[in-house]
Amino acid sequence: MQTIPAKTIVTPVKNSAGWFGARYNMNLYRGCCHGCIYCDSRSACYCDDDFDTVRAKQDALRIVRDDLRRKVRTGVVSTGAMSDPYNSFERSTALTRHALELLAAYGFGAAIATKSDLICRDIDVLREVSAGAPVLCKLTITTTDDALARALEPHAPPPSARLDALARLHDAGLHTCVLLMPVLPWLTDDADSVRTLVHRVRETGTVCIYPALGLTMRDRQRAYFYQALDRAFPGLKQRYIARYGTRYECSVPHARALWSTFTDACDETGVFYQMRDITRRYQRGYEQLSLF
Predict the structure, then answer these.
(1) Number of helices and strands (H, E) in the chain?
(2) CATH topology of domain 2-283
(3) pLDDT in tens, 227-280
(4) CB-based contacts of 165: which residues, under 8 Å, 6+ apart?
(5) Residue 67, SS3 per DSSP
(6) CB–CB of 126/96 below 8 Å?
(7) Is pLDDT at 67 greater than 50 in this prediction?
(8) Which of 33, 78, 106, 227 gives 20 to 30 Å between its CA and that of 43?
(9) What is the DSSP string of 92-107?
């Protein structure tokens, strides 16, 4: 596979109290091969003209090791924000697996976001990390309908595989969470679909779901998304244009009612959905990560 140069990989986040309590961010790859039609990382502001091609960062593991050794404070390292750490190339490169081994060695936690059941390959390492620091395994699931998912996320493992992965991770004693994002207007935003997803997730043992009831669209990504809609859902693009124009944040048309449906289903099944509650739950029981 192609490689690109990098000077640093484990970088501080601006607000460590924000996104799942992560103090650092780590991207071992650039680009993604899942082909999700809604992915905001395809936007021009991220300066990746070939987003659908995965490239590994050169000498990534040495850089990660050196970055971790220089940190004054340990903390949770988030990965998966801009590229899936369990893309298809990870089966052979094992960069994510070896980076997790480094996190375990230096006492850092991990908060992983992925659409791949390949994360289950690394259950042993994730348990090693969790012996000394918090671990949260987040799998994105936008629909439980495998056929619909093939149109929205054509090269990602199907939702059924991700649900199975959640159950395996939970059975291994790891904290799990579902990212219900984005919820796409007129595609995945009906109340029955959302209720079904909450119940299916809860059946895996997972008790955390974090939602985003809508999607974001800007410049290059908007054009890509609309072309995909024309191919898979003829006529739907016009509804988007009429309602959202060039708006960046595009909430589902009935966001308040759908939020009520979602929260009612979560409350009935004992699912946490507020960021602070999810963060407290998976970090509970660990001493405050501070100075080496």
Answers:
(1) 11, 12
(2) pyruvate-formate lyase- activating enzyme (3.80.30)
(3) 999 999 999 999 999 999 999 999 999 999 999 999 999 999 999 999 999 999
(4) 116, 117, 119, 120, 139
(5) helix
(6) no
(7) yes
(8) 78
(9) HH-HHHHHHHHHHHHT
